[in-house]
Amino acid sequence: MRLEAQYEQLVATGSDVEKRRSFKKLMRDAGEAWEEVVTQEDIIELVDLFVVKVSLEWISPQFFTLTIYWKDDEWETDQAVIFKGACPSPQWSKEEEAILRNLYPTAPGKELMQALPYRSLDAMKMHASPLGIRRQRRNKEGNVRIFCLRDLEIIEECGLDVATLHWKAGASLATPWHIVSGDDFACECAHG
Questions:
Q1: Are 123 and 153 in contact (CB under 8 A)?
Q2: Secondary structure of residue 136 in the 3-state scheme
């Protein structure tokens, strides 16, 4: 009850800097009871109070970086790599289709993936079929069929296990949150 009263006073008075300082103290004090003190509706106000902006940057067809820029001077800028799955690039360019027509019938999977680094072998198969392009090779490429070359590079850079990535779960953290220093907002997948 004391924490709830403190919370009610916080949202009603003070400058943004004072509110942030008080909310940080409340976060420490509330600990595990945080969800009992702060309602879901209040979270939107807290985001406005603490966050300058959030940016999403696709780094491959199935992964993006999520960067949170905080208003609080004591908090650094946080970033994580997120696995989303799905197909963010359903449209094929004429150049991609020309490569598919030329290579798909005879080239091995590795060569196809290098020629079309943002297309998975499954996407190539699905796009080739209505175009009447048939594959002469029937090699088993295994589980990598669902990832494009760029996805596989992100998986390797971040030390992920392909078997743990599932589309049905929705977006999920692929890496832990880490602090991004200064203006260097490149994907830093190394675990610290």
A1: no
A2: coil
- Where is 56: in which H helix or E strand? strand 51-60
Q: What tens digit of pLDDT does each residue of 82-133 get?
A: 998 766 567 899 999 999 999 999 998 889 999 999 999 989 999 999 999 9
Bridge pairing between strands 63-70 and 77-83: antiparallel
Please calculate the CA angle 132-136-139 and round it to the nearest 5 degrees: 120
d(CA 58, CA 60): 6
pTM score, two decimals?
0.73
What is the β-pairing status of strands 63-70 and 51-60? Answer: antiparallel
pLDDT digits (tens, 9 = 90+) for 31-87: 777 777 777 777 787 888 889 999 999 899 889 999 999 988 778 899 999 998 766
Backbone angles phi, psi at 100, to 5 degrees: -60, -45
Instruction: Please tell me the distance from the alpha carbon of residue 113 to that of residue 190, in angstroms, as a whole number.
Output: 25
Domain segments of the chain: what residues?
1-38, 51-192
